[in-house]
Structures
1.
Amino acid sequence: MTVKELIAELQKFENQDLLVVVDGYEGGLDDITKVKRVKMLKNFNTGRKGDVFYWGIHEEIDDRTDYDRSNERVDAVYLPR
């Protein structure tokens, strides 16, 4: 989903004072704590982690990332809990 698509979806809500939440770690719901711009490798973990349901398919670029992979590098908006 792009920022433009997210804004369009959120604008559909009549009440603009609704809370926005994300999945909790193992259950429930959590607040978003900030909005952060990140650089990530798109689809980096597809097949790499055995496609386990609890591991995201993209990977933020940081000191631990294996840069030998040729995955597409993109900017993204991250909404952490």
2.
Amino acid sequence: MNTKCDEIKDKIAELIAGILSETEKDAVAEHISVCSECSGYAEALKDEEFSLTGLFEGYSEDLDRQQEEVVNAINLLGHGTKNKVMSVVQGAFDSRAVRFAAAAAVIVFLAVNYIRAMSWVYELKQCMDICSISIG
């Protein structure tokens, strides 16, 4: 794998998340079209996102109901029912599905931000290399 592939792999998660500029999207798409390794990596990430999205869709109705209960409990806070709010919030996390969905969301968040951080580290390293060349 070369440096270009490293750069592209750092951008693939951002491409899937839809947060790249049009120029970056085009560059990543062009590279993926000619590089089988990066294309496979992109497909694996898309499959993972599809799987996780499917998991969350299955829980959306339960989460909507629980969210409504929490909002109602918060509205009651002004009436001095703080303990009821806490019991509703605790009850929401008694559900295995909610705990699983929350854990999956944390994992996805960490994975996306890890990929972004690695991209920033790579760019910082390049800057440091350029500085050491110009100083040395």
